[in-house]
Amino acid sequence: MTNRNKRLFGEIVKDVQNDENSPTQRRTVPSHLLDRTNRLSEINSGDIIEKVHRLVNPEQCRMWEGHNRRYDLLNEQRCDDLIKGFKSQGKQELPAIVRALKDDQNYDYEVICGARRHWTVDWLRNHNYPQFKFLIEVRELTDEEAFRLSDIENRDKEDISDYERALDYKLALERYYKKQKDMAERLVMTETRLSRYLDLASMPQEIVACYADPTHIKISHWVELKKLYQSPKTRGDLMDIASEIAQNQNKAKDESGTIFDSQQVFRQLMKAANQRRRNRTHYLGEYYTSSGNKLLTIQRNGRQGFLIHILANSGADTDEIISVCNQSIREHIKN
């Protein structure tokens, strides 16, 4: 509200209040005018904040590049509650928060909060409900303010995943904050909790690819998988298994086969990597023939003994076998 309007409203309120002291005037002032005057007085004092909502076509809006939801993963299933609610109410009740765009030839607004609402209205308009429009509230926000507003709105919602939030926090830390501590304070979040999200964002893409839907990745998954990934003894096995699972998932998608859910993927990764580690025999040495075939292995047998295992199908003759056996003994058995 401009200063001029505030002064105008103030004068109106003052005049009406003065008039109320006159019995004659009190009788002649209509009740609806008094109600309006009281409302203007509250607005002028700051007790009421008026917001302007607009109804626009969803085609006029695009997602803000810093939006914390994967718009490309939205579908009828993920927006089912909104679709039913909009149909029941006949309209969108809660406005999306947007910013006005300047010098953009294709769009008028960018959506800060309300990706699912935008998707739902667009879906309804394309499925026999052309009367629906996108309800928006235009605000002036910096990028950092937009990030925090989006985070606050979606933080307690179950339909936005740990992984989506993790990527959002990682990007925000790089763009808006100097230190992780500063970011935690602005978000009113413990550093420990923020660290867990940032850690999840570092999950290797080879493991992310195992999940048919990355929005199903949870912090608890990476807490356990990270232990296998960080250990030199199990990292190779984990990544090998991840590659196999990802290939099977893609094949299942292409052939309309059975796709593993997030918990099944997690259990497979943990079980297979640990099983391979247990099954792998620790050899002190492996020896090969001159043609490259494995000839024998040597491993510890108890505290004071060694076991030499000669492969019968190596293709080596007797002289080569004896020579390699002598070599393994000299290298591992001390006098």
Automatic annotation (TrEMBL):
GO terms for biological process: chromosome segregation. Residues 54-155 form the ParB-like N-terminal domain. It comes from the Bacteria. GO terms for molecular function: DNA binding. InterPro entries: Chromosome_partition/occlusion, ParB/RepB/Spo0J, ParB/Sulfiredoxin_sf, ParB_N, SoPB_HTH. One of its GO terms (cellular component) is chromosome. Belongs to the ParB family. NCBIfam families: parB_part (TIGR00180). This is ParB-like N-terminal domain-containing protein. The lineage of its organism: Bacteria, Pseudomonadati, Pseudomonadota, Gammaproteobacteria, Methylococcales.
